[in-house]
Each structure stands twice: as structure tokens, then as C-alpha cells.
From TrEMBL:
Residues 7-434 form the Ketosynthase family 3 (KS3) domain. This is Phenolphthiocerol/phthiocerol polyketide synthase subunit E. The keyword Transmembrane does not apply. Its EC number is 2.3.1.292. Its cofactor is NADP(+); pantetheine 4'-phosphate. It holds the Pfam family CurL-like_PKS_C. InterPro entries: AB_hydrolase_fold (IPR029058), Ac_transferase_dom_sf (IPR001227), ACP-like_sf (IPR036736), Acyl_transferase_dom (IPR014043), Acyl_Trfase/lysoPLipase (IPR016035), Ketoacyl_synth_AS (IPR018201), Ketoacyl_synth_C (IPR014031), Ketoacyl_synth_N (IPR014030). GO terms for cellular component: polyketide synthase complex. GO terms for molecular function: 3-oxoacyl-[acyl-carrier-protein] synthase activity; fatty acid synthase activity; oxidoreductase activity; phosphopantetheine binding.
Length: 1035
């Protein structure tokens, strides 16, 4: 920026919308740059085929043109947790704005779960023609739908609060309404809320879906509607507007916050203003030069910029004989036109491209201007041929361009103004400036983790394809920023996928399945914050260079390895890092097999790795070690300080190394079958699985047992150890070790872990007793019983925190009563030729797939990363639509919402809740479908189906798991009361929410159809007609 920040700047960090001729921002900007006119004209054949009245179509003044929004019937109801019937009863304006609200937060990089920002929502909508024409025009809806439900689903009062509820946003949330200027006023209000500290991020916008002019319209003589179906702002042939449908939303933040968080910034909102014309105009609906000039002047003053620094104005630009000259006159007045160079500021008008979007017009103009600043291009003005002679062009700097132009830099930053003027006189103007140049991101890891998630498998596939296509087109975006945005800026949904990759090309190939080296891992979970258990392996897992790659790439791991190595050096007489970073050869292996070095090295690597995991938010709910691994658990639990733990581990290893040589044998046999085969000098050192034990003792005794087992066909294997751990051979050192332990302060565990001695949870008394640690050295490691203890709680995720996969293998073989668990390995096996970083990142991805919570900011540490605009969620829209009883043939009455060229819909378009209404498939439930068995259950199931809009409800289906809530429960109880003639308490449904339970409570009551209410029907129809007749057209 040319000047220092004042603290009053607001950054536009996210954009989203649906527009005539474009379903997304990319298509919208392409159309704008190409000068595309999205107002479509229809042939007589198309109109007649769609059901329009022939007399109307052939009327000499009828204009067969409209700026339609495609697929307004579509909505991803399941994604937002709505039942099909709720979706059908909801104004498509609410549905589309809800989708765009989700998209704009994702676009900003702040759509993640647990984002700490306080988010406000400020928006408005046009009149609900869906309510007036479709819902109140359907007799079944009028007869059987609670008016409160109609109000909640269609009134503008609930537009923003619906978003706040569904997206869990806790900042201010309220409707803004000022006719055509609604959405730009919402932007002004949102900006003020940000600057006043009421919220940290503000979502602002508007939506307008006009179902009454889907085929065309009849303009009145001297009215504002264009008689030829074209909108030509500032042109000599301009004769009026064409209404369109659309939705737009922007995400706003205080500029200093956006810069600090690395948000994507499309433009800066330097200042804004809102006023009203008062009585200084020709009539209530007429515009005012004075009012418009004043609001522009005030916005310039609030932005603290000179008019001559503005080189583009996105105007209100209605293309009317009265509106255009007044608007340019007001601009000339505000800019002090006579003093500025001619043709130094371009005028644009989005209405020439997509028509007048009413409550969404202002924000869509803001989106266009923001994209122009972002791309540094000035789009052409379509349909402009000759300047309007009634506009005082010579009095100011303004002109209209007809070609796409590069927006050249001047002495000041590129700046633009955006105007929006509402019928009723409320005017809004904002001043924009180009975004400051982004500082580069910090250097990143060699490998990146890309997490993707969606609500369904098919949506996940679509999202994967979208991201691959995006990366192919945008290789210039740092992959680390892409990964960061996916990690912190998206919510973790049920179906998940991760990819570990090293470059954009690598990522693209991995996402498309074209890579032979990158694995695309997938999974599903409904868990949030899945409990993770750390497993720490014991001696035998060590190998040279274990963790060497992590030492180089992970600062936290390196920090704790360094700390342990320094503390151990006086005990070991060497720097342990020499071994940990040594080449993986026989010399290093021989040194590391020395017990005193092996145990110290294992503790160091496992402790450092655990600390790394914890810095990434993977906090253990519980832990269990194997032999020496329990010391890591005890240290992390607070039983031992780090210095004391290292001293004990060093002493333990040194004492054991003094012992005579011993041997250990792994045997595929359970404890009961193995114990009778053991001689007096042999002992069972470990029970690793129900049928896998380890025997320990003198080498000759172990060799004899091996020969005997081999003759009997029992699988067994000698382990690579120098001593007979957990056997009578260690008894000579027990007292000396006990003396050392007694000098150490032992504390009560703060984190639960499983004891090797008992296979049960460690008790405070055990942990604080020095004799426990002596017995731990001598007695059997009961690892399999410990796994049984862990398996009693469902949903646990086991993470092996140490080298290799020994414990992971044992855990996977363990039958778990609570169901299969997820087991993850952190480090590679010594024979694997996979980089340490890849194994670790795939482990992190696997934990996320299983539902573990990850602290992604902790993962990135102090590195500066940028959020980038990535492809947003691929909603899976289905048609949810209720049509009037009789498709009226008139236009502009608009009782014809069907797609042009398509027959009236016969699925999901009938009224609610007639018994033959088309319904949507039963959702996935935990219970199997069981059909109703008698008339009572059929009756209750039918009511569930009608209220929820679902087909084939089974007797064990839970009303609330099907998508029901308290308001719909009231509807169910009302239907059952009307059908049975018996007053049924609402509590009945809460106490027994399945079909079978409700039917049982109803007993032997018979069903009868609900009574009709002709008087209520007539009142609702009268209300709809009065509102329709009194609704004014927009300017």
C-alpha cells in the first residue's frame, strides 16, 4: 500500500456466488471478460412447450427474455442435515445462500472446524416468490403444513441465522433489507461490525430468485422494464432493466488480521458509506442526484483518498432513461468533475451482463470489481454502441470501455468504487484498493500432506478430481500453502482421503492415480477427537539411523533428541547422536546391540517422537510400553522427570550388560501350553499375544527348548538379544537397581498407562513404589493382557511411537471385543527403503483418517504459511421442489417455475404431505430396514415418511436419526392426532422415537385422514394474492 495502515481497512478474503450463465466465480469472471450477455431470449416454441399461454406469448408487448439462474431447484439437503420435506418447504434463496456461505468461508481459508474466529453474518434476500407462488399455491401445503415451518423456511428474518446455526457461527447475525441496495449495505454493516470489534470475520451478501419472470414479462408503458429484453446502461438506446436471479457472498476481515493470518486478499475495502435520499427526489421510487453524490463523497472521505485516484466505478447502472443520467451527474458532482482529466475513469455495469439481481445486485457488483482488481483487468461493457446523449459526459472524467483492458498501474494503487442504490432511497458506495503484494511463504518441509474430506464417497471423488485439475492449472501456488489451506481451512467430514507428496506434479499424479510411488489413502469415520493410545516398543526394535531423517527435518524431534543425548552423555561416556545418525551397517548395528546403548537409544527416540506427536496435537488418551518402553510412558505421565528417567534407563542398561550372556526365544504357543515345557532356569519373559510368548534363560537351555519345539512342529524363533531379560538371570542385579530407584522421586501418574506387570491400568501406589520398578525388570511383560485392557473401550486408535512395527503387528493380531481398532506405525522398519518423513506423514494422515484431532498450526510451527483459494465443496444437489396445484400459464404472474423446454416435474414436486407424494430414499442408518408388520405400524411409518419426505421407513428407524427435530416432532404428533382422533403427548415421540415404539403406544387405534380446513385455505390464498399485487418492481 502507498500509505501506512490506519486500522480502518477491511480485506475481502473470500468470494462466492451463483450467477445467470455461470455457476461459479471462474465461469462468472470468464463471462464478464468475454462480454457475455447472460440474459436469454426464448423462442415461441420453447415458451409454448413450457406451458405458457398462447395469448400471452403472442401479446405484442410480451418480452420473452430472462436472466435465469440454473438449477434453483437443486440443493444438497443431506449435507446440511435437512430432511427432504424440510428442503422442499424451504425457499431456494435460503438454500443457495447457505451453500454460498459455506463456499465463501472455504474460499477465505477459514472454513475449518474449530476455527477460533468470531464470524458474523449480514445479508438480505428478495421477496419469497417460492412461498407466494409455489407453497401457498399448493392446497396440500396450505392444509397440512405448520405456518411456523413455512415462516422459518422462507422469511428473510431467518436467512442469516440459518447460516449461523448450520455453520456454528457465533458473531452477530441479522437480516439487512434496503431493496436493491440490500447486499452492498450488508457489506457496509459487516465492515462496521468488524471495525467495532464485534466479530473477527464477517460474511456479507444477498440473494434474489425471481420465479415470477422465468419466461419473460409484460413491460408497462413508461416503466423501468426493458421493452426489448436487453439492458444497455449508458447507451443511447438504453430503455430499461431486465430482472435476473443470483446470489453473492463475500468474506471480510480487518486488513491487519488478514495479513497476519496469510489470508487470500482479493481487494481492500478502504471506506464505505450509506445514506438515504430523504425527500429530495421526484417521488418515493425516484433516484436523487444529491443523495447519490453525498454517499459517494462520504465514502471517499471515509477512505481518505482523492477522487482522481479512482480509475474504475462499478455503477448501479440500471440502463433506464432516468437512472443513468442521474447516476453520472452524481458521480461528476462527487468527483468535482471539471477539474479531472477527461476519460480517466471507466464506468462498468454488471446489469448489462446478467440483469438486475435485486437484493444480490450490489454484492455481485462488488465481486466483479474485486476480481478486476485481483486480475488487474478491466472487463468490457457489453451492448454499448453510442453514448447516451442525456448524460453529461463532458462534465467529468468518466467513459465506457468496450474491450477487455489491462488495468495499468499509476502513481497510486489501483482503486475502484462500487455503487448500489435502492428503491426507497437507501444508497451505498464503497471504495476498493488492490491488495498489497504478498510476502513469500517460508521454506517448507520436503513432503506435504494433503487432507481431503466429504460427506459422501462420490463427493470425495469429485473433490479429489477438482483439486487435481486445480493443481494442473496453478502449478505456481506453493504446495505447502495448498496443504496448509486444506489442513486449517476445511472441515473434516466423514469420508476422508490423504496424500503425501513432494511437488505439485507429484500431487497431481497422486490424486489422479497416475503415480507409482504416492499412495492415496482413504477412510471414513464419524469420530471427532478419536482417542489415541501411544505404544512404546522395547529392546530389539532399535537399529542404526533410526529417526535420522526426522532429526534432519523435524525441529521438535531434534530438540528432544539433543536434550536426551546431552543428559545421557555423562552416563554413557559418548554422544548418542553418533549412533542415531550413523550409517546403517554391521558395525553400527553391533554397537547398538549393546544393552546399555540400545535401551538409552530407544528411550531417546521414543520420547522425542512422542513429544513431536504431542506438538502436532496428537495427545495420548492412554499409553502402554513394552519393557523399556514403559519408562517412556512413565516419564510422559509425570511419574519420572526426564533427567531421572534417563538416569534410570542408563543404569538399568549398564547393569544388565554386566550379566552373563543369555538368550530369548519367541514361541507360537499360549502361556498355559508352554509353561510345562520349561526347565527350572527358563522363564516366560513376555506374553505378546494369546498364542505368542517369549522364553528367556541361559543359551543352552533355550537352544534345547528350541530343538524340542521344532521336533513337535511348533513355530519358534531366536531373538537377537545378548541377555536373558525378564528371567532369573537378571536377579543378581536387582538389589543394586533397587538402591538406585529408591533415590529417585516417583510421582502419581497424570496420564493413564497400562502396567507390563499386571496388564491392567497402573495404580498410583504401584507407580510410586520402587519395588514395582525392580519387579518390572524381572517379571514377565504381560503385553497381550494389556492390549485386552485397552480393547475394552471402543474407538481407540493405537499409535506405535518408536522404530519398526513390532507392536503394531501384535495389536493387529489381537481380537478386540469392542470391534476392530486402527493401528498406526510411526517409523519405518530397518529393511524398508522409505524416507522417515514419508512414513511419519503417512502415519499422521492415517490418524486423521481415523478421526484423531490434529493441531495443524502446531505441525507448521512458526513457519509463515498462506491460505489460498482452492476448489470448494462439490455439493451433490438433488431436486427439491413443490409446485402449485395448477401450473398457471401466465407471465409475469410467475406461477411457472418449471425449466423451459422441460415438462412439469413429476418427482419430488408434489405437495406436502399427501400420501402419494414422491419421496427421497431412506438415508443410511445403523440399523437394518424392517418393514411395518401391521396396520398400526404402517400408519406411523406413513406419517414419518410424509413429514420427513422419506420413502420406506422401517419399524426400527429412529425419527431423530432420520433427520427429525423438535419442530418436525410437533408435526408428527399433530398428524397422528388428526389421524387417530386421540391427543398424543409430544413426549411420546421423545421417549420412544421408532415406528415400532410409537405404534405400540398408540395401541389399537385406527387411522383416518386429516380434516381439511377450507377457511384456512382461503385466508392463505388471499394473503398470497394481496402480497403479490402489492409487490413493487425494483428500480
Amino acid at each position: 500500500m502507498a500509505t501506512p495502515l490506519t486500522g480502518s481497512e477491511v480485506a475481502i478474503v473470500g468470494l462466492a456466488g451463483r450467477f445467470p450463465g455461470a455457476q461459479d466465480l471462474e465461469g462468472f469472471w470468464r463471462n464478464v471478460c468475454d462480454g457475455v450477455e447472460a440474459i436469454r431470449s426464448y423462442s415461441t416454441e420453447e415458451l409454448l412447450a413450457s406451458g405458457a399461454e398462447p395469448e400471452l406469448v403472442r401479446h405484442p408487448r410480451f418480452v420473452p427474455a430472462a436472466a435465469r439462474l440454473e438449477n434453483v431447484e437443486g440443493f444438497d439437503a443431506a449435507f446440511f442435515g435437512y430432511t427432504p420435506r424440510e428442503a422442499e418447504l424451504m425457499d431456494p434463496q435460503h438454500r443457495l445462500f447457505l451453500e454460498c456461505a459455506w463456499e465463501v468461508l472455504e474460499s477465505s481459508g477459514h472454513g475449518g472446524q474449530g476455527d477460533p474466529l468470531l464470524v458474523g453474518v449480514f445479508a438480505g434476500q428478495a421477496l419469497s416468490t417460492y412461498l407466494l407462488v409455489n407453497l401457498l399455491g399448493n392446497s396440500a401445503v396450505r392444509r397440512s403444513t405448520d405456518p411456523l415451518q413455512l415462516n422459518l423456511g422462507n422469511s428473510g428474518s431467518f436467512l442469516t441465522t440459518r447460516v449461523s446455526y448450520k455453520l456454528d457461527l457465533k458473531g452477530p447475525s441479522f437480516l439487512v433489507e434496503s431493496a436493491c441496495s440490500t447486499s452492498l449495505v450488508a457489506v457496509h454493516v459487516a465492515s462496521q461490525s468488524l471495525l467495532n470489534g464485534e466479530c473477527d470475520l464477517a460474511l456479507a451478501g444477498g440473494v434474489s430468485i425471481n420465479l415470477t419472470q422465468q419466461h419473460g414479462y409484460l413491460p408497462s408503458e413508461g416503466g423501468i422494464l426493458s421493452p426489448d429484453g436487453r439492458c444497455r446502461p449508458f447507451d443511447a438506446s438504453a430503455r430499461g432493466i431486465v430482472f435476473g436471479s443470483g446470489v453473492g457472498a463475500v468474506a471480510l476481515r480487518r486488513l491487519e488480521d488478514a495479513l497476519a493470518d496469510g489470508d487470500p486478499i482479493y481487494a481492500i475495502l478502504l471506506g464505505s458509506a450509506v445514506n438515504n435520499d430523504g425527500a429530495l427526489r421526484g417521488g418515493y421510487t425516484a433516484p436523487s442526484v444529491e443523495g447519490q453524490a453525498e454517499v459517494i463523497s462520504e465514502a471517499l472521505a471515509n477512505a481518505n483518498v482523492a477522487p482522481e485516484t479512482i480509475s474504475y466505478i462499478e455503477t448501479h447502472g440500471t440502463g433506464t432513461a432516468l437512472g443513468d443520467p442521474i447516476e453520472v451527474h452524481a458521480l461528476n458532482t462527487a468527483f468535482g468533475g471539471q477539474d479531472l482529466p477527461r476519460q480517466s475513469c471507466i464506468l462498468g455495469a454488471l446489469k448489462a451482463n446478467i440483469g438486475h439481481l435485486d437484493a444480490a445486485a450490489g454484492v455481485c457488483g462488488l465481486i466483479k470489481a474485486s476480481l478486476a482488481l485481483h486480475h488487474r483487468q478491466l472487463p468490457p461493457h457489453p451492448l454499448y454502441e453510442e453514448p447516451n446523449p442525456h448524460i453529461p459526459w463532458e462534465e467529468g472524467p468518466f467513459y465506457v470501455n468496450t474491450d477487455l483492458m489491462d488495468w495499468k498501474a499509476g502513481a497510486s494503487p489501483r482503486r475502484a468504487g462500487v455503487s448500489s442504490f435502492g428503491m426507497g432511497g437507501t444508497n451505498a458506495h464503497v471504495i476498493l484498493e488492490e491488495a498489497p503484494k504478498r510476502s513469500p511463504s517460508d521454506p517448507s518441509r520436503a513432503l506435504q500432506l494433503l487432507p481431503l474430506s466429504a460427506a459422501t464417497p462420490t463427493a470425495l471423488d469429485a473433490l479429489t478430481e477438482r483439486l487435481a485439475s486445480f493443481l494442473h492449472k496453478h502449478a505456481e501456488i506453493p504446495l505447502a500453502d495448498v496443504a496448509y489451506t486444506l489442513q486449517v481451512g476445511r472441515r473434516a467430514l466423514e469420508y476422508r482421503r490423504v496424500l503425501v507428496c513432494g511437488s505439485t506434479t507429484d500431487a497431481e499424479e497422486g490424486l489422479t492415480g497416475a503415480s507409482s510411488t504416492r499412495r492415496l489413502l482413504s477412510g471414513s469415520t464419524v469420530a471427532t477427537g478419536a482417542p489415541v493410545v501411544f505404544l512404546f516398543p522395547g529392546q530389539g526394535a532399535q537399529h542404526p539411523a533410526m529417526g535420522a531423517g526426522l532429526y534432519e527435518s523435524e525441529p521438535v524431534f531434534r530438540e528432544y533428541v539433543d536434550a536426551c543425548a546431552r543428559a545421557l552423555q555423562p552416563h554413557l561416556g559418548l554422544d548418542l547422536r553418533e549412533l542415531l545418525r550413523a550409517p546403517q551397517d554391521s558395525t553400527a548395528q553391533a554397537r547398538l546391540e549393546q544393552t546399555r546403548l540400545a535401551q538409552a537409544a530407544l528411550f531417546t527416540v521414543e520420547y522425542a517422537l512422542a513429544r513431536l506427536w504431542m506438538s502436532w496435537g496428537i495427545e495420548p488418551e492412554a499409553m502402554m510400553g513394552h519393557s523399556i518402553g514403559e519408562y517412556v510412558a512413565a516419564c510422559l505421565s509425570g511419574v519420572l522427570s526426564l533427567d531421572d528417567a534417563l538416569a534410570l534407563v542408563a543404569a538399568r542398561g549398564s547393569l544388565m550388560q554386566e550379566l552373563p550372556p543369555g538368550a530369548m526365544l519367541s514361541v507360537a504357543m499360549d502361556e498355559a501350553g508352554l509353561r510345562p515345557l520349561l526347565g527350572p532356569r527358563l522363564a516366560i519373559a513376555a506374553i505378546n499375544a494369546p498364542s505368542l510368548c517369549v522364553v528367556s534363560g541361559p543359551p543352552e537351555d533355550v537352544r534345547s527348548l528350541q530343538e524340542e519345539l521344532t521336533r513337535n512342529g511348533t513355530a519358534c524363533r531366536v531373538l537377537h538379544t545378548a541377555h536373558a531379560f525378564h528371567s532369573p538371570m537378571v536377579e543378581p542385579i536387582l538389589e543394586r537397581f533397587a538402591q538406585i530407584v529408591r533415590k529417585v522421586k516417583l510421582e502419581t501418574p497424570r496420564l493413564p498407562y497400562v502396567s507390563n506387570l499386571t496388564g491392567q491400568w497402573i495404580t498410583p501406589e504401584q507407580a510410586r513404589n520402587p519395588q514395582y520398578w525392580v519387579d518390572h525388570l524381572r517379571q514377565c511383560v504381560r503385553f497381550a493382557p494389556g492390549l485386552e485392557t485397552l480393547g475394552r473401550k471402543p474407538g481407540r486408535v493405537l499409535l506405535e511411537v518408536g522404530p519398526g512395527r513390532t507392536l503394531s503387528t501384535l495389536a493387529r493380531r489381537m481380537p478386540v471385543p469392542s470391534g476392530p481398532w486402527t493401528v498406526v506405525t510411526s517409523m519405518r522398519h530397518p529393511d524398508e527403503l522409505i524416507p522417515d518423513a514419508q512414513v511419519l506423514h503417512e502415519a499422521l494422515g492415517s490418524l486423521w483418517l481415523a478421526g484423531a484431532s490434529v493441531n495443524w498450526k502446531g505441525y507448521h510451527g512458526n513457519a509463515r504459511r498462506h491460505r489460498v483459494a482452492l476448489p470448494t465443496y462439490p455439493f451433490e444437489r438433488q431436486r427439491y421442489w413443490i409446485s402449485p396445484d395448477v401450473q398457471a400459464q401466465g407471465v409475469p404472474g410467475g406461477e411457472t417455475p418449471a425449466e423451459l423446454g422441460q415438462p412439469p416435474a413429476t418427482t419430488a414436486t408434489t405437495g406436502m404431505p399427501s400420501p402419494d407424494a414422491a419421496r427421497h430414499p431412506r438415508p443410511r442408518l445403523r440399523n437394518a430396514f424392517v418393514a411395518p408388520r401391521d396396520e398400526q405400524e404402517h400408519m406411523v411409518a406413513r406419517v414419518f415418511e410424509e413429514v420427513l419426505g422419506i420413502e420406506a421407513v422401517g419399524i426400527h428407524d429412529n425419527f431423530f436419526e432420520l433427520g427429525g427435530h423438535s419442530l418436525l416432532a410437533t408435526a408428527v404428533v399433530g398428524r397422528l392426532r388428526d389421524g387417530s382422533g386421540v391427543s398424543i403427548p409430544l413426549q411420546l415421540l421423545f421417549e420412544g422415537p421408532t415406528v415400532a415404539q410409537v405404534a405400540e403406544r398408540l395401541g389399537g387405534l385406527s387411522w383416518r385422514p386429516p380434516n381439511e380446513d377450507p377457511e384456512r385455505d382461503a385466508l392463505l390464498l388471499m394473503l398470497a394474492e394481496l402480497i403479490r399485487l402489492e409487490t413493487p418492481s425494483a428500480p
